[in-house]
Amino acid sequence: MEEKVLKEFKQNRQLLSEMLGTSDMPTKEKFSKMAIAKPAKEYHKMP
Q1: Which of the 8 DSSP states describes residue 44?
Q2: Using alpha carbons only, how large is the chain's radius of gyration in Å?
Q3: How many domains does the chain have?
Q4: CA distance linking residue 17 with residue 31, whole number of Å
Q5: Residue 9 and residue 14: Cα distance in Å, rounded?
Q6: How many CA atoms lie within 13 A of 31 on its CB side?
């Protein structure tokens, strides 16, 4: 059961990093404030 949850968690992290455009960054930088702020700003600029 725990292995299934951990596998799903890893899949969710990977999906989120792809959505943020940070999948090519090192793990420590993928979810940094700067990495998340950049796509958020771009999203708000969209019409």
Answers
A1: H
A2: 13
A3: 1
A4: 7
A5: 9
A6: 7
pLDDT above 70: percentage of residues in the chain: 100
The per-residue pLDDT for 39 is: 86
Euclidean distance between CA atoms 36 and 22, whole angstroms:
9
CB 22 within 8 A of CB 31: yes
Surface-to-core class of residue 41, CB atoms within 10 Å of its CB (0-12 exposed, 13-18 middle, 19+ buried):
exposed
Provide the residue range defining the domain that includes 34: 2-45
Amino acid at 12: N
Please state the pTM of the whole predicted model.
0.67
Q: What's the rounded Cα separation, in Å, for the pair 2 and 34?
A: 31
Amino acid at 29: E
